[in-house]
Amino acid sequence: MAVPPLPSGLLDGLPTSTAVYDRHGVLLRLTLAIDGKYRLRSPLADYPAPFLEALLLKEDRSFYIHRGVSLLALARASYHDLVARDYRSGASTITMQLVRICGGYDTESPAGKLRQVYDALRLELIYPKRAILEAYCERAPCGGNIEGFGTASLAYFHQPISALSLSQELLLACLPQRPWDAGHGPCPPGLLAARGRLEAAWAKRHRPESGAEAQFSMPIELSVSLPFAAPHAVDSLLRASSGEGEASPRLDSTLDYGLQRTVERVLGKYVERKASIGIHNACALLVDADGMRELAEVGSADFMDPSISGQVNGTEAKRSPGSTLKPFLYSLAIDQGLIHPMSILKDTPIHYSGYNPDNFDDDFEGPITAKDALVRSRNVPAVYLTQRVRNPSLYDFLSRAGVRGLKEPGWYGVSLILGTAEVTMKELVAMYGALANGGRFVPLRSLRGQAEPRPQALLSPEAAWLTLDMLKDRERPAEVDSVLGGAAFPACAWKTGTSIAFKDAWCVGVFGHYILAAWVGDFDGSGNPSFVGLEAAAPLMFEIIDALRLGGLDCSPGAWVDRPPGLARVKVCAASGKIPTDLCPSEVETWFIPGKSPIERCDVHQEIFTDIDTGLRRSAPIPGRTRREVMEVWPSDMMAVFDKAGMPRKKPPPFAPGEGLEPRPDRAESPQIVSPLPKGEYVARSVPGGSAELPLVAIVPSDAQKVFWFLDESYLGSAPRGKPFFWKQAPGSYVLRATDDRGRSTSCEFTVLASD
Q: pTM of this prediction?
């Protein structure tokens, strides 16, 4: 005769909750199992011996003696029911209770009770006692949809069962017979009475230890609640876990509950304080740079607020990064030998294929050091460098750093550096991790025990260090007042960003061993003049840093402040950023990478010989007839900026007839064509009266007065320096050449496409 199947779901296949813990073992979330129960899988070894003893004392004193049914318990229950009229004594063993829980049939009827007895006997024949006890501890009803003593310990006492006091353990053992469904407050009388009887039985068996009786008399407050901490981060972990197949019953995250609470508190108060200027939402992400482990993730100002779409995780949303990508551009330029920190870049008006980049303040600085251009987030020098970096380009860097959803490079053009390629906060922080880790890129990790991916070298250690060194000297925002005092400020290399139309305000900082990013904006993409990185996001980031420091976070310098050995110091001309000559009046020091950083002699300071009688320039000194003067000789675009700023530079006089006709490439650079772009493609648009005109623009040295334009060796015409020459477009591929009146020449290729 075939043996009937055992009750389903006894030991195997039982749906369980997923418990998510922080890195210290603090429970962050317990999810519902698929059957709507809160149920943790806990091995019997996790239960303290006193609790198991109390449980058997309460439910089944002969558990290890009987074979599923206790005749002694049946006799005792019959006596209490029929003679003493005391219905508190039951005859069901733990095995019988487990059968009833798993089988789901009515044990009040005679047929149901017989089936319960039969299945209990069968269960004892197949499974060992410890397996039965473990299954019961996991499935015992503990009130509402809470099953299992391990789960009940978290729900009622907010700590694992191994951390409970003896009094709490005894109370927990009484829950299956007296489940408590109230919200919170003191224990109900029935449950306290049941615990009192169990305490009395315990006291008979054990001589009370010192203080045990005092524990028994202590009032116990219960609060049925399960934590809902770090909601955005935990949701991400749960989605990732379920996406890999069956959800894991336990997820040990890298999050730190204490740090998470600090970041949430500071961010919430900041948003509340700034509501009057239209700031209603913000995000923040804190990462340990050593291993790139997430410590705190706040995806919105309030997860429960639908008015700000609070359940959207802003750390995973694609947003315009504004200028926060500029440090990577400067690192690439340093690595490719284009600049060092004191190299002079041009912050001047420039034209790129119908696009005229400007700065946040709608002004231009003229010559500016690379360090100042980065720290002050000047757009024009960044666009200039974007054109020059190659192999890898900035686009290549973003791709290698794992930025997803990038369009083709041509879609962005030179505006890529200004934030037209959207990134998530997590992607951005991972890229800053490459700077903090000596140029080595490691993706973010949020689970403990994850295999550490092999680092990918995206930058040299020297370029990464120089970039952060430039950024760490920037002063904190004036708005931020720290209670720690100025001496307590940790070194912080930080960069802000503001997206076009004021939709996103960013600040990312590297401090101590950590990386912190802050974002302010609205998830609906609406703009607000208050959403400026320096004014909205930077104060938030530094307030969080100060709160973390005050809370005891170790902000001692991280490895990123240690200078790599491949750097050296060199003196450069203060005006040109190049190796000084004996003509340079002042010098400054800078870090540079030997064999890589640009080493050029200064050509800004030049000897000018002027005829005393005519005031005209001579190519060489004539004793008694010329006077010598050292002058700054700047290109035409720089001279125009100086003039506009009210700081005109003295221009060399014209050459005397017959002199200065030979080009001097060692003392002055050739013209630079800035419109059209080399290899650029243009469309011959029709306008009333014919085709649209394309401006031809070249930057020339200051000693040039005129530019001559040639198209495929055909002469087009000339224009004064600093002025465009307009050419009516016609479809075709061309070679354009610009020659100044000193004989210096340059050329580029471009294409004009026919309009549809």
A: 0.81
